[in-house]
């Protein structure tokens, strides 16, 4: 099986963080199109903030099922019962949300396109690994669970679930990196750095 974008797949976390840094830089240097009314941009900001909260909580929800057992146990419960890649679904929401929360819909569109170009290859690589490890069990899971669009009628969750608390604790901060980027943006905005940079 030929697998594309191998360098991106192997270093996807570093690339993703670089993308967030690049998006933050873009937001600082490039204002939203002047044709968009301020009230619409403010609405985008509020919607984006709400979606960032959804992203952070969703990533924590996923982490609560896979912390310390990813690729060792085939997880099909909770968020993984409705979609095969819930973490990436939340990442996509977070990417678009960041563009909206900095009141720049053009950036939101660019992030959505960038995600759509690179992350399908990441998913193909991960699915190839899981298919090798879990074989027919994973194939049946793929047949019943969509890759991208959640099928909520599939939802089920156990009464209890064991994970590695150390891995979960370590992943908590990482699960909220979209919110960290927003906080940096607000600091830049509040301390007048944004106006100073754009006036140069």
So what's the CATH class? Mainly Alpha
Give the class from helix and strand content and strand pairing: mainly alpha
Contiguous uncertain segments of 5+ residues: 1-5
Estimate the mean pLDDT confidence.
86
DSSP summary: helix tally: 9
Relative helix content:
over 70%
State the end-to-end CA separation. Answer: 51 Å
Number of strands: 0
Overall geometry comes to elongated
Q: What percentage of amino acids are in beta strands?
A: under 5%
Main sheet attributes: strand count, strand direction, barrel closure: none
Please identify, by name, the CATH architecture. Answer: Up-down Bundle
Cα-based radius of gyration, to the nearest Å: 19 Å
Q: Fill in the CATH topology.
A: Four Helix Bundle (Hemerythrin (Met), subunit A)
Total of domains: 1
Secondary-structure element order, as H and E?
HHHHHHHHH
Features:
Four Helix Bundle (Hemerythrin (Met), subunit A); 0% strand; disordered N terminus; 200 residues; mainly alpha; 9 helices
Question: What is the strand and helix layout of this fold?
Answer:
Layout: H1 6-10, H2 12-29, H3 38-66, H4 79-82, H5 86-101, H6 105-144, H7 165-175, H8 177-190, H9 193-199
